[in-house]
Amino acid sequence: MLVRQKIQGTRSISVRITRVFLLILFVVSLLAGCKVGYSFNGASIPPEIKTVRVQFIRNDARYQDPQLSQQLTDKLRQKIVSQTKLTQVNNDDADYDISGAITQYDVSTSGISNQQVATNRLTVAVSLVLRNRKTPGEEPRNISASRSFDFSASLTLTQAARQLNDDIVRNLTDEIFNKLFSDW
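Structure (tokenized):
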């Protein structure tokens, strides 16, 4: 009698697992049939969009980090290719064409202690234009991203930029990607 109950308990668990699996499979297949291409990272891209060109992000800021443009361009390209189904191309035939510039790279005082500057803030802003070449007549989308990073006033701007570089590139790339591909 005890063995029969254990066998029935095991069967009911496997039936539940099967039902959950089938429900998940149904939801995934339902999403795959929708007009807008969905992915689990939140990016929504029309299914007819297959290629993207991310042009070099110029540095038009008053102060300039000589490596930031290249690093930001490379990281954005990598993120788009790794987290979407888009293929990176380098010609004018791309379905999506992204261009733009770093427009701000400024330092301001953000904290004072004992009548002395204790903390500075580096603000970096980027403005991009997304052109959809698959939809003639569609207006280009302007995208802006800006982030601020605090650092000790005992550091020079060069030292702080070196220390903050990974955070700057990662945070701006994430914000740009979300604004480009999310409808949130």
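The mean pLDDT is 83. Helices lie at 2-32, 68-83, 157-181.
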